[in-house]
Design goal:
There is one protein chain. The protein is an all-alpha fold. The chain has one domain (3-136). It is 76% helix and 0% strand. Helix 2 runs antiparallel to helix 4 (63-85), helix 2 (18-45) packs across helix 6 and helix 6 runs antiparallel to helix 7 (116-136). The longest helix has 28 residues, at 18-45.
Length: 137
């Protein structure tokens, strides 16, 4: 086999690098969290519209709801790529970082009050993920 044959890789091979893995996880957690926050904003904007056809039409033209839909497409694509390279037994629990980011986003971005019990829950999630990751190493 020639050196040229060994160095020729399909364009998608970049997905196998550690940097790509970190990027995919960042994309997944970011888009999934943004979708949840956008749905909250969109839902608040639709609160005065009676549920029915009028509500559906208003939802389909609400920029926050449309943003959430786009974010869900991004999270789906990144999740599929993550599952190509990771075990589900580690990937699924790691995806719970979305809970942490949504809590932080709702606190910082939406001004919601976060109780001490919620903060404790954040640390339990982070600790659990740390234990699972340690078991994979």
């Amino acid at each position: 086999m020639s050196d040229q044959t060994l160095s020729t890789k399909p364009a998608w091979r970049w997905l196998e690098s550690r940097a790509a893995t970190i990027g995919l996880w960042t994309l997944l957690i970011g888009t999934e969290s943004a979708a949840q926050l956008a749905l909250k904003v969109g839902g608040d904007g639709l609160a005065t519209v009676p549920f029915g056809v009028e509500w559906l039409l208003a939802a389909l033209s609400n920029i926050a709801v449309l943003t959430a839909g786009g974010c869900y497409i991004g999270s789906f694509l990144s999740w599929m790529l993550i599952l190509r390279r990771s075990s589900l037994s580690l990937a699924f629990p790691l995806s719970s970082l979305v809970f942490v980011v949504v809590l932080l986003g709702s606190w910082l971005g939406l001004g919601e009050h976060i109780s001490a019990l919620h903060w404790l829950g954040v640390w339990v999630i982070i600790g659990g993920i740390g234990l699972l990751a340690e078991g994979e190493a």
